[in-house]
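User: Some background: our group keeps a shared notebook of sequences we're curious about, and every so often someone picks one and asks for a predicted structure to add to the entry. Today it's my turn. The entry only has the sequence so far, pasted here. Could you supply the structure so I can complete it?
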Amino acid sequence: MGVDPGLRITGYGVISVLPRSASRRPELVEAGFIKTRATAGISGRLCTLYESLKEVLEDLKPDVIVIEKLFAHYKHPATAILMGHARGVICLLSGSQKIPLVSMPPTHIKKMITGAGHAKKPQIQRMVQYYLGLKKPPASPDVADALAVALAYAFEKTGRGA
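Assistant: Of course. Here's the predicted structure to add to the notebook entry:
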């Protein structure tokens, strides 16, 4: 399960990959996003994220949770702090649900999916569409990013990728 953490919108994507099956395409199990209300305040938003993601984990029972490593852009340090709050909820759920947690660098994920470490969101959306055999790219960049994280982890484990 890949997760793209955000305080406003957190995307998630669960895929199924058979081990040692280079010819078999990863399959989409479920993907979606959790949206929080700004009026709920930070504690309310984190509670919504926790409860919603816990329900997803209990329903889908993923083997692993994969997230991007945290990074901060010098122009937007507050964004990293807010993402860190959402990331903390995911880390807590990983521990409480006893699901292993893996963090991958964003440039590594992009390189695994598109072949370029600084790919833009539309490229990622199209490659997620390609790898999962979808009729169209995921409409939500948050969902596409979460699926890209899951795919990158799966490709690293199976030796596949862009």
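Suggested note for the entry: The beta strands are 2-4, 9-16, 27-35, 65-68, 101-104. The chain has a mean pLDDT of 90.
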